[in-house]
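Quick start: read one record
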Amino acid sequence: MKGNPVLAAHEPASTPLASQTYPRQRILVADDDGAVRDVTAKLLKRCGYEVDTAEDGAAAWVSLQLNRYHLLITVQNMPKVSGVELLKKLRTARMGLPVIMATAALPRDEFNRFPRTQPDGTLLKPYRVAQLLGTVREVLRATDCPREQIAPPPNEQSQPSNDGFQL
């Protein structure tokens, strides 16, 4: 039946159906904290997103020039190129990529001086898994092209964890 995804015999029942129905969204996660970067990437992959990572803003900029992404998740304080500097580079290059910035304190002075550097979404640290996934879904929906559909993560993934896990 067309439009009804069917799991292959070798696929586990927990495989997200949405990722089989819609094109996968590709996300770049730029964070100099390796543990946070890896956990974020694993969570997003479990929800059906295709994820690349960068260990700093300079590496993120290289990846952005070489690959096509649907979303960038970055932190503000990174070596070499900060989150705001990365946003400035994106806007100067006229790349319409949506950006989520995760930070302990928003750089409001920078945003006021350079309004084009305003990210599409923000996550204030520490944030919960549900906040991360919700912000990703909201930003992707808000910036989605009509020809692309967003694959929503399974409901169980978008619920706050019982262990209070935070990023």
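Residues 110 and 137 are 26 Å apart (CA to CA).
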